[in-house]
Amino acid sequence: MKLLLIFLSSLFLEANTCYTEGNFTEAAKKYEQSIAEQPSAEVYYNLGNTYFKLYEQDSLRGNLAQSILAYERALRIQPANEDTQYNLEYAKSKIQGKIKDAESFFLSDWLKSIRDALLQQTWTWMSISLFIFMLVGIFLFAFSKTLWLRKTAFYGSIVALLISILACLNAASLHKRDSQRVEAIVVKGEVVVKSSPAESGTDLFPLYEGVKVIIDNDQIVDDWCCVRVGNNKGWMRLEDLERI
Asked: Which residue from 69, 110, 152, 178 lies 20 to 30 Å from 76 (Cα-Cα)?
């Protein structure tokens, strides 16, 4: 184990030296080797910087996608790293084209925005806490002899129950969404999303290198997958994507 750590440290230092000297191709190889042995947020971050430098040298070789992919993977390990967040947003600003969301029912979008405002764990704890609050309210309503306290406990219990149910539904919705999807980055220069899993399908909209999509794991047919970008949905080949 100690020898492995020494080897990884040596690879990382060699990669840093190559990066400093401007040998970005060799630096990327060494960072990739280090990640293959032991992934870390720091190495992914440096790899993202390296691929972005390669993108600046030649914007046609797919390095922008690899840069964004590396930053995304770094954030999976350290979600609050501000340097990675900044560099990721800057890299995203270089993506060609902008996908306009398809129109959708405003109430549905509003409900989703409420659901997505909190994490699944937060909704779960909120639901449990409010359910306990409801039980306390029922207890006070049943055994208290003070009229105003009984009224307050009665109506408070109803409100707590309703919000608890809403929180539970939001938690369940987020769990279902996260269990059925996986995020990926488009690694091909330009891809046309189809209406069906076949080349003969109708062209819907183009996606460009570096765009992040959501793959629906329940809709994978042979080498095709159903993807979503915002409110837009369609089919594209798995080979044109790399999962984060």
From this structure: 110
Residues found in the chain: 244
User: Starting from the edge strand earliest in sequence, which strands make up the sheet with 203-208, in order?
Assistant: 203-208, 190-194, 232-237, 224-229, 212-221, 181-186, 241-243
Buried b (16+ CB within 10 A) or exposed e, 148-179: eebeebeebbeebbebbebbbebbebbeeeee
DSSP symbol at 223: T
**Helix boundaries (H) for the chain:** 2-20, 24-37, 41-57, 63-77, 82-92, 106-116, 120-143, 147-179
Segment 154-184, tens digit of pLDDT: 999 999 999 999 999 999 988 877 776 689 9
Cα dist from 29 to 44, 53, 152, whole Å = 12, 14, 66
Distance CA 244, CA 225 (A): 15
CB 87 within 8 A of CB 52: yes
Determine phi and psi for 81, rounding to 5 degrees: -70, 110
Give SS3 for 108. helix
The model's pLDDT over 183-212, given as tens digits with 9 standing for 90+, comes to 999 998 889 999 999 999 999 999 999 999
